[in-house]
Amino acid sequence: MTLSFFQHQWKAFWRSKNTGKSVAVRVVMAFLTLYLFLNIVFVAFFLDRILDELFPSETVISAFNGILLYYFLMDILTRFQLQELPTLSVRPYLTLPVTRRQIVNYLSVCSLWTPFNIAPLLLTLPFLLKQVLPFHGAAIFFGYLVSIIALTLFNHFFSLWFKRKVNINSWFLLGFVVIVVLLALLDFHWEVISFSDISRSIFNGIYTMPLLCVVPSILATVIFLVNYNFLKNNLYLDELRSDHSGEKSSTDIAFLNKFGIAGQLAALELKLIMRNKRPGSSLKICGLMMFYGLLIYTNPAYGTGYGWKIFVGMFMTGIFIINYGQFMFSWQSSHFDGIMAQKVKAEDFLRSKFILFYCFSAVAYILTIPYVYFGWEVLLIHSVMFLWNIGINTLIVLYFATRNYKRIDLSKGSSFNWEGVGASQWILSIPLIFLPYVIFLPFSLFGLQMWGILLIALSSVALLITRNYWLDLLVQEFNEKRYTIAEGFRNE
Amino acid sequence: MIEIRDLKKVYNGVTVVDVPSLSISAGESVGLVGNNGAGKTTLFRIILDLIRKDSGEVISKGYNVSETDNWKDYTGSYLDEGFLIDYLTPEEYFYYIGSLYQVSRSDVDLKLDMYREFFNDEILSKKKYIRDLSKGNQSKVGVIACLLQQPEIILLDEPFANIDPSTQIRLKNILKQIERGSNCTTIVSSHDLNHVTDVCQRILLMEKGKIIKDIRTDSNTLTELESYFSVQQVESFKSIDRS
C-alpha cells in the first residue's frame, strides 16, 4: 500500500502542469543542498580541531558534549520555521478501502526524508568515527550514535506534532523567538543558567554509561506514538484543513478610497495580504528585514564606503517591492479572470500597484530612519534609495510582472514554497541588484562617491516625474500579455 | 447587440470554437446548450475577451471587445469562481463591484435587499469569507454581483449548477423578470434543458465548437433538444456495443 502511495506521489510530481519548471528549480535546489552538505561534512571532519581551538581548556569530548544540546535546540527552532508538514492529499484515499493506519504510516515515513534529519548525522558521524570510536571504544560510539539519532527523531516528530497541534502562525513563532533570545541572554549574557553545563551533564552520562542512550530512544518513541495517534484521530477533512476559521468581519480602508478605483484596488490587495497565508508570511519577512541594517552597519568589516549602504538601503526600503513584487499579478491569479471581465481599466490596475508599493516603501523608510544613529550618510543614502525604489524598482518589477504566468495558491506557507517561482524571478534580480551600481561604481572608482549618490537620486526623480509615460508603456505591455497571463493563471 | 463574425479558436490543432456568424439582438434571452467540451465556456471567454481568438471578431454594441474596454461598462458576467475574490466577505465583494460601476453603498444595499429571498439568509452578515461558503452559495454571490449595475448584457455559465432546487426556481424568476422588465440581453448556458427552455426565447445548441442548431423556443423545443441528446446517447451505446 505504502508503495502505491509512493507511486501516486511520483506521478503527481511528474504529471503536474508545471513540472518542466519545477524540475529545473529542484535541480538548483539539489545543488544548493549538496553544497550545504559538503560544507557540513567539511566542518564535521575538522570538528575536533575546531573544538580544540574554541575550548582549549577542555578535552575534545567534553567540549563536544557541551555543544550538542545547543545544536538540538537550534535544530528544533529552525524546524518550527522551515520544516513542512508532509503532504499527501489524503482526501481521495479516505473513502477507499485503505486503513487509517496505512495512511498515517505513510505520512510518518514520508516525512522522515528531510535535510534536517540527515544534517545531524553528517555533522557528528565523522567526529564520532575519528575521535570516539578509536579512543573510547565501540560501546560509547554506539551510545552516542543512538542518542543522536533518537534526539533527531524526537525533534522531528515533536515539531510535526507541535506544528499540527497549535497550527503555528507567525505570531506564535515570534513569541518563540523572543523566548529563545531570552534564554540565550540568560545563558550568555547574564549567565544565570548554562545550557552548556546541562548538555555536558547529559552527554557525560551517556559517555560514562552508554546504555543510557535508551532514554532518548524512549523519548523519541513516545513522541512518535503521540504524533501517530494524533494524526490517526484527526484524519478528517475538516480537521486536517489548516485554517480554522473564526468569525470574519468586513473592513474598510478609508484612506485608500481617496485614490478612486486604483485606490479601491490597492485596498483590495491590502486585504489580500492580510487575509491569506502566503502573502502574509511574505509581509512578515519584510518586517524582519528591517533589522538587516543592524547586521551590516554594526560590522566594521563592511567599511565606511557607500557601496554596502546602497545595497542595504535599497533592500530595507524596497523589501516589499522586491519580495512581494516579484510575484506580482500571481497573487491575484485565482480571480484574475474576474478582474479582466469587470470594469477595471489596465491603467487603474497598474496604478493600484504603484499606490501599494509607495505606501509600503514609505512605511519601511520611516521605520529605518533610526539608522541615522550610524551616521547622517546612512539616512541620506536610505532616502535616495527610497526614491530609487519607488521611481525605478517599481517599474522594473511591474515590467517583469507582465512576464509572469504562474499561479500561486495563497493558502500555503512561503518557506520552501517554490510555487510561482520561474525564470522571471531570477532574471528580475539582476537589474534589481546591479542597476544602482551601474550608476554608482564609475563615480566611486574615481573617489566621487557623493556624485554617484546624487546621480542615483536624480535619475530616480527623473523617472518619478515621467511616471505617466512609463505607465503607458506598462499598460501596452500588459494588454499585449494579458491573455497569456490569464491562461497561465487558469492552470492549477 | 452582439455580433460574432468568423470566430475561430484552435487548441493544439483541435478547433474548439468555430462560429462563422452569430447575431444576438438587444433584449434577447439566449440559452446555450451542449455536452461537455462543446465549447460553451470557451465561447463565453472569447466574448469577454479573456482568451485570444485565432480569427474573427466579437462586436458588442458596436465595440470590438478586444480593442476597447467600453463593453465592460454594461456587461455583467459570472463564469466560475475565478470571478470571485475569495478572501473578501460577500458584502465587501458587492461593495467593491458596486464601486467599479459607481453604484453607491446604499444603492448596493437596496439592490441586495431585493434579492434577499434569493440569498435565503445564507450570504449576508454571515461573518464568513467567500472562500468559506459552499459552491452553491459562492455561485449566488457571483450571479447577484453581476446584476448590481444595470447591465445591458448578462453572461452566465451554468448558473443552475450547484444551487439547490428552490434557488434554481428563484433564479429562473429573476432571469424572466429581467427579460420582461428591461431591454437586457442574457446569454445563459446550462445542462438543464428544462430550465433553459423555460427561461430563454432562443436556444443555441453547440457541438464540437459549432452552433449546430439555432431555434426559437416553443412548446416543441424541449422535446427536440431531448431527442438530440438522447440520440447521441443511443449512438454512443452502439459504439460501445461495437467495440
UniProtKB/TrEMBL annotation, chain A:
Its keywords, alphabetically, are: Membrane, Transmembrane, Transmembrane helix
Q: Which chain positions lie within coiled-coil regions? A: none
Task: Give the superkingdom in one word.
Answer: Bacteria
Q: Where are the transmembrane segments?
A: 23-47, 59-82, 103-129, 135-154, 166-186, 206-231, 281-298, 310-333, 354-373, 379-401, 421-440, 446-465
InterPro entries per the UniProt record, alphabetical: DUF5687
Can you name this protein?
ABC-2 type transport system permease protein
Q: Which organism is it from?
A: Arcticibacter pallidicorallinus
UniProtKB/TrEMBL annotation, chain B:
Q: Which CDD domains match?
A: ABC_DR_subfamily_A (cd03230)
Gene3D superfamilies linked to this entry: P-loop containing nucleotide triphosphate hydrolases
* Residues spanning the membrane: none
Q: Does the keyword DNA-binding apply?
A: no
- Entries under InterPro entries matching the protein: AAA+_ATPase (IPR003593), ABC_transporter-like_ATP-bd (IPR003439), ABC_transporter-like_CS (IPR017871), ABC_Transporter_VariousFunc (IPR051782), P-loop_NTPase (IPR027417)
Q: Which UniProt keywords apply?
A: ATP-binding, Nucleotide-binding, Transport
In this protein, which residues make up the domain named ABC transporter? Answer: 2-233
GO molecular function terms attached to this record:
ATP binding; ATP hydrolysis activity
What name does the UniProt record give this protein? ABC-2 type transport system ATP-binding protein
Which species?
Answer: Arcticibacter pallidicorallinus
Q: What phylogenetic lineage does the species belong to? A: Bacteria, Pseudomonadati, Bacteroidota, Sphingobacteriia, Sphingobacteriales
